[in-house]
Write a structure and sequence with these properties.
56% of the residues lie in helices and 5% in strands. It has 28 helices and 7 strands. Strands 2-3-4-1-5-6-7 form a 7-stranded mixed β-sheet, sandwiched between helices. This is Integral membrane protein.
């Protein structure tokens, strides 16, 4: 996007160009066709999309905008010049995801993004409204446990390891002099255990505040754009999908409620960590009755706060049937403030003078992390039961994991959260303790979870080896297919092998459900084993004492290697994010991750990275509607590549039926069915895609066998003309030809416009939309 800004500055395009009659033109101009190009993952520049170094911005801002060639800026005033070709426009939205290096830090919010995806992975089950609501409720509760896990990890580091264990040990404070003022040997005011905990609570409280601030700021910057007003507000799914509902792309009320609840949950977690340690000391025999009473009252207030948070999360889901502009102002404001007040009371209570109180051992981290792990496993099992029930109501053979994609993804989100929280705890403990063993260290459960990582990685390596063997066998089959596709060529063994290998590797995308299923199942089982092992209070190496030497050695090796790997994984996250500050290519790579993962609104976790589609879909809807309504005979071809085809389909569903009937859709390299249709069957399943084909005037889809992302959409011919053109040849020519005098490259997922089929299909779509021509659909055989 930096190149785009440089060109725009040279062309004087810093502000939107005023066109005659506005961007849509005056009502007197008829018969002009518009081709609205939407790019895919990774982003590009308007100059590359329009194949012209001189472009002007006609609408939008620095975040997302529509561009034209400078020569086409006044196309509406010259309709005769565009009788035989469309006016090309480029919608550039890459700055929504990868334009700023600071957004690379969103990588640390990856578990929140993953659990948010699970909300949208439910199976399609019309007529099961209560079961669907239960599915959403379970995902929101699982998301809440992730927030508590992250804040609990921060409490473990700041309160337990630093303020309780290290600051209370003379050897540790001697190594880390910055903690010296907290040491009991100094006898200072902050040396009391409760006061140390109260001071350290500022770290997890600040983390919670930062998450609240980022969620609130990103909502205003990216997702606050209201969809186009509509007269119809259906109370049912439009065309087999909820993406056509008026309020689907505007979840302000739910995000505000969840943000308040998760912020309060984080603050209550900190308050519990501070107050529970003091309350346990006050309950000892002979302790002060007043402090014991205050401790019990504080714990009762914390329990009441937890009940309030859970009630807010459970009470209400998304409102999609109408544009919900209201927010629960009192709830959004007072729930976090009440939790903050309880945290302040807990800090005051813990800081009270308690003679004889010393910090020994660990805080109650084992019980807290064990309860979280058990609750997350219970929620995954319940979610799997609900998802399976929904899938059996209307089985979809193409759905990933037979409807269990959501529970599997929730499991992976919990595992990611565990790796990140455990990695921080392990590395901080090693840093504070050094080569000594003066500290008790992090909770035993985190050590057991770390020990489960080596066998999990070994299983994944075995699975990857099996998939590699399958790809190798498929490559041998493709060798013959390549020779049949180019029958009149003098075959080159190296070129044939390269084409066959590319085709074989492209099919590995279809094995993603197997990888997710194996990983999720193994993670759930190993997590259950780790939880059971931690109940003994001993680490894996200690628990293996007295057994066979081989078993004991394996346990100790797994413990040491897992501890190193879990820390290395977290360090990898941090260094990758830091690298993105200096490396544009790293920023672009991370941006691609968000292009795929943040398409969906924040329906389960408010701290997930922002949803770019809540800006992009309204942008496209407004542009298409204003163009088609500007005059009689206006034609529009919506041309989407890769993720752009998903945005294009979502925007088309948002149009009114009248506007939708004047739009043609051209998709290429599209993951609409191959990825979205399998993983999100309730919104992009066969019924939804068939309805889109029926509602818009016409739709064609281009794909290649070498494309690892795009594929056919498999809309049946009985429901209208075939959407899919037969797979395009890649490369365009096997050897040197008069049209391709130099060796043609393998294009894979990119540069579909280079294939003559692209221009051919665009001409056919425009011909279908000619003014005055009735909407008769041609025979599928004629199109092929």
């Amino acid at each position: 996007m930096d190149r785009a800004r440089e060109h725009m500055a040279m062309d004087g395009a810093d502000a939107p160009r005023e066109l005659p009659g506005g961007p849509g033109g005056g009502p007197g101009h008829t018969g002009i066709a518009l081709e609205l190009l939407v790019h895919g993952v990774g982003g590009t520049t308007p100059q590359d999309m329009l194949d012209d170094p001189r472009t002007v911005r006609i609408s939008g801002d620095d975040t997302a905008a529509v561009f034209r060639r400078a020569d086409d800026a006044d196309a509406e005033d010259r309709p005769d010049d565009y009788r035989d070709r469309p006016v090309p426009e480029a919608y550039v939205w890459c700055n929504l995801t990868s334009g700023n290096s600071a957004r690379a830090l969103w990588l640390l919010l990856l578990p929140f993004m993953v659990v948010n995806l699970a909300h949208w992975m439910r199976p399609a089950a019309p007529g099961r409204a209560r079961t669907v609501r239960l599915y959403g409720l379970l995902v929101r509760l699982a998301a809440l446990t992730l927030t508590v896990l992250f804040v609990a990890a921060a409490c473990e580091v700041a309160l337990d390891l630093a303020a309780w264990q290290c600051a209370g040990t003379r050897a540790c404070t001697d190594r880390h002099t910055w903690l010296g003022f907290l040491s009991p040997a100094e006898g200072g005011w902050w040396s009391r255990p409760g006061r140390r905990l109260a001071l350290a609570a500022a770290v997890p409280a600040a983390l919670t505040g930062l998450l609240w601030y980022l969620s609130r700021r990103t909502w205003g910057a990216y997702e606050s754009q209201q969809p186009m007003p509509r007269q119809d507000e259906p109370d049912h799914e439009t065309g087999g999908t909820a993406l056509g509902r008026p309020g689907f792309w505007y979840g302000r009320r739910l995000v505000a409620r969840l943000r308040a609840a998760h912020t309060a949950a984080g603050l209550l977690t900190v308050a519990a960590a501070v107050g529970s340690a003091a309350a346990r000391f006050d309950r000892r025999p002979g302790g002060p009755a007043v402090l014991d009473t205050l401790g019990r009252l504080l714990e009762a207030a914390l329990v009441a706060g937890v009940v309030a948070v859970v009630w807010v999360v459970c009470r209400r889901g998304r409102s999609e049937n109408r544009l919900d502009r209201e927010i629960d102002a009192h709830l959004v404001r007072w729930l976090p403030l009440a939790a903050l007040a309880l945290l302040a009371l807990a800090a005051v209570y813990a800081g009270w003078e308690r003679p004889g109180w010393q910090s020994t051992g660990r805080l109650a981290g084992d019980a807290a992390f064990g309860a979280l792990a058990f609750l997350q496993g219970l929620l995954v099992v319940a979610l799997a039961v609900v998802a399976r029930t929904l899938h059996r109501a209307r089985p979809d053979p193409r759905a990933a994991l037979r409807g269990l994609g959501g529970p599997a993804v929730v499991t992976l989100a919990g595992a990611l959260g565990g790796v990140m929280s455990g990695g921080v705890s392990q590395r901080v403990a090693d840093w504070l303790d050094g080569t000594d063993s003066s500290l008790a260290g992090p909770p035993v459960l985190l050590t057991w979870q770390a020990s489960a990582i080596p066998p999990l990685l070994l299983l994944l390596l075995l699975l990857c080896a099996l998939l590699a063997r399958r790809a190798w066998l498929l490559r041998r089959t493709e060798l013959g297919a390549v020779e049949r596709d180019y029958p009149h060529e003098a075959h080159d063994t190296a070129r044939t092998r390269r084409i066959a290998s590319t085709r074989a590797m492209a099919t590995l995308t279809d094995r993603a459900p197997l990888i997710v299923a194996v990983t999720a199942t193994a993670t759930l089982l190993l997590g259950a084993a780790a939880l059971a092992g931690s109940l003994s209070g001993r680490t894996p190496g200690d628990a293996a004492d007295g057994t066979y030497a081989f078993v004991q050695g394996a346990a100790q090796t797994a413990q040491a290697l897992g501890s190193w790997l879990i820390g290395f994984g977290f360090i990898l996250f941090v260094t990758w994010g830091r690298r993105a500050y200096k490396d544009a290519s790293a920023r672009r790579t991370i941006g691609i991750l968000w292009d795929v993962g943040t398409f969906w609104p924040r329906a389960a976790h408010p701290f997930a990275p922002p949803c770019y589609a809540e800006r992009a879909v309204p942008d496209l809807t407004w542009r298409m509607a204003t163009w088609t309504r500007a005059g009689e005979g206006r034609r529009l071809v919506l041309s989407g590549h890769s993720q752009g085809s998903v945005l294009a389909a979502a925007a088309a569903w948002q149009l009114t039926p009248e506007d939708r009937g004047r739009v043609a859709l051209l998709t290429y390299g599209s993951p609409l069915e191959r990825l979205y249709g399998r993983w999100f069957p309730a919104h992009f399943g066969p019924r939804a895609l068939a309805s889109l084909h029926a509602d818009i005037d016409c739709w064609r889809n281009l794909h290649r066998a070498t494309d690892p992302i795009g594929g056919p959409v498999h809309v049946l011919r009985e429901q209208g003309p075939a959407v899919d053109r037969e797979a395009l040849k890649d490369p365009l020519a096997y050897g040197r030809t008069p049209e391709q005098p130099l060796p043609a490259p393998l294009l894979g997922h990119g540069d579909y416009q280079a294939d003559p089929a692209f221009a051919q299909e665009r001409r056919r779509l425009l011909a279908r939309l000619r003014p005055g021509v009735p909407g008769q659909r041609p025979d599928p055989a004629d199109e092929d």
